[in-house]
């Protein structure tokens, strides 16, 4: 019923958005005298803000078709190098450019598409041969494709690294820090030749007992059964994944919006004022952000519930009780995967110390292969997007990768 109610509301808002868009267009038409005086510009701006906020959204495109390398303009195209039911590995091919560190960016499976990391990819393109995990919206995966849980997530990370081949590097942004650290341990224990040379984790919930945030507390204040009963919905018959149990993206989005509702309201108020003033460029910047932020997808119920249980409630990885395919994940097995932990000083999703915990949990990794960076003034989003990411954080990552990329090949 929850999902059906949402679909009904979404359909109504889509119609209202279309009507508001038409109204704004009429009021902004140069041939309409009300476009120049009276309340015309104000009403048109209000309708445009509503139309944008209520518009239905699908999966955004990366839209990264150019980059600049050593002052030279280079064309870029996307290539799918591996496909699986719940995600694919995408490569950004820099035409005419060979070599460079092989960097796999692991995008979070937390309600948004991988395009949320567009700025991350864009910044790394001049430096590295970039790949990204492009997770699929769970409501579009037919039931015949089976389940997807935390074990499967780890398997996907390992399989994608094997597709890339030996010598790769991993950048895990937020939520995937846990499965990526577990995958590194599994691959190290198995002496897998495709284990990454470096693993960088940014704002990841390795040990959420360190400086718990509102997000962490929300996951621990209620029993596990509450999440099963209140956060899980069934995909309606209108989608390919009909009948699948999911944690809907719209619920995740509602949670994030409510955390900073005042900021979101002010952003739309500022957009309204820019439109009234005719400052379309500033208004478009806000629109671009929300086009991405409001585009959400579902995740499977089993993956979501496992994450709540193991990551936020029982702290399985830092406590040494996490398993993969029935075998305990031993972080002590990590001996030659260099780890960089990056945190934001103002991160309100993953508190300071949660990602850094990985450095204490890998006792057999030499200290020279561990590094911690606290990004001054950066919030959660700012550690992988925006000016602080581009000018202060990305250079730290590049230096870390460069330090180990030329290391002598390991013995398989």
Question: How would you portray this structure in words?
Answer:
The protein is of the alpha/beta class. The protein has 14 helices and 14 strands. The strands form 3 sheets. The protein has a 9-stranded mixed β-sheet with strand order 1-2-3-5-4-6-7-13-14, with helices on both faces. Strands 8-9-10 form a 3-stranded antiparallel β-sheet. Strands 11-12 form a two-stranded antiparallel sheet. Helix 3 links the parallel strand 4 (102-106) and strand 5 (129-135). It is globular, with a radius of gyration of 22 Å. The relative contact order is 0.13.
Q: Short summary of the structure?
A:
This protein is an alpha/beta fold.
Strand order in the sheet with the most strands: 1-2-3-5-4-6-7-13-14
Q: List the total number of helices.
A: 14
By secondary-structure content and strand pairing, the structural class works out as: alpha/beta
What is the CATH architecture annotation of the largest domain?
3-Layer(aba) Sandwich
Strand count, sense and barrel status of the largest sheet are: 9 strands, mixed
Estimate the helix proportion, in percent: 40-55%
Any idea what the shape is? globular
Beta-strand content bin: 15-25%
The CATH homologous superfamily of the largest domain: Alpha/Beta hydrolase fold, catalytic domain
Topology:
Blueprint: H1 2-28, H2 40-54, E1 66-69, E2 72-84, E3 87-94, E4 102-106, H3 118-124, E5 129-135, H4 150-164, E6 168-173, H5 177-189, E7 198-202, H6 214-220, H7 224-230, E8 233-234, E9 245-247, H8 249-259, H9 261-276, H10 280-293, E10 299-300, H11 301-313, H12 316-319, E11 323-324, E12 327-328, E13 338-344, H13 357-360, E14 370-375, H14 387-405
Parallel strand pairs: 4-5, 4-6, 6-7, 7-13, 13-14
Antiparallel strand pairs: 1-2, 2-3, 3-5, 8-9, 9-10, 11-12
């Amino acid at each position: 019923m929850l999902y059906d109610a949402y679909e009904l509301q979404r359909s109504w808002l889509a119609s209202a958005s279309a009507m508001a868009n038409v109204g704004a267009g009429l009021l902004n038409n140069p041939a309409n005298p009300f476009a120049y005086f009276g309340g015309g510009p104000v009403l048109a701006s209000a309708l445009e803000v509503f139309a944008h906020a209520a518009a239905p959204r699908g999966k955004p495109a990366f839209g990264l078709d150019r980059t600049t390398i050593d002052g030279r303009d280079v064309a870029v195209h996307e290539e799918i190098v591996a496909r699986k039911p719940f995600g694919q590995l995408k490569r950004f091919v820099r035409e005419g450019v060979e070599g460079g560190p092989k960097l796999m960016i692991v995008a979070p499976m937390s309600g948004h598409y991988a395009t949320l990391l567009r700025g991350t990819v864009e910044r790394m393109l001049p430096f590295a041969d970039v790949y990204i995990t492009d997770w699929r919206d769970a409501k579009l995966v037919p039931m015949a494709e089976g389940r997807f849980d935390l074990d499967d997530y780890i398997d996907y990370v390992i399989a994608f690294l094997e597709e890339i081949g030996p010598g790769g590097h991993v950048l895990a942004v937020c939520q995937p820090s846990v499965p990526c650290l577990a995958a590194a341990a599994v691959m190290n224990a198995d002496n897998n030749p495709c284990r990454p040379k470096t693993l960088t984790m940014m704002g990841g919930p390795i040990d959420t007992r360190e400086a718990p945030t509102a997000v962490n507390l929300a996951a621990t204040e209620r029993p596990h059964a509450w999440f099963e009963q209140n956060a899980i919905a069934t995909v309606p018959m209108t989608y390919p994944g009909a009948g699948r149990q999911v944690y809907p993206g719209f619920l995740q989005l509602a949670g994030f919006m409510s955390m900073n509702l005042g900021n979101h309201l002010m952003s739309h108020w500022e957009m309204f004022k820019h439109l009234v003033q005719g400052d379309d460029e500033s208004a478009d910047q806000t629109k671009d952000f929300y086009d991405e932020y409001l585009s959400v997808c579902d995740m499977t119920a089993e993956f979501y519930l496992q994450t709540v249980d193991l990551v936020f409630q029982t702290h399985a990885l830092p406590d040494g009780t996490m398993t993969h395919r029935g075998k305990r994940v031993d972080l002590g097995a990590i001996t030659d995967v260099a780890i960089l932990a990056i945190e934001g000083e103002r991160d309100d999703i993953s508190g300071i110390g949660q990602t850094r915990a990985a450095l204490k949990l890998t006792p057999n990794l030499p200290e020279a292969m561990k590094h911690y960076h606290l990004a001054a003034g950066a919030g959660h989003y700012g550690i992988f997007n925006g000016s602080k990411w581009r000018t202060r954080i990305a250079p730290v990552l590049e230096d870390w990768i460069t330090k180990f990329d030329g290391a002598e090949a390991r013995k398989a």
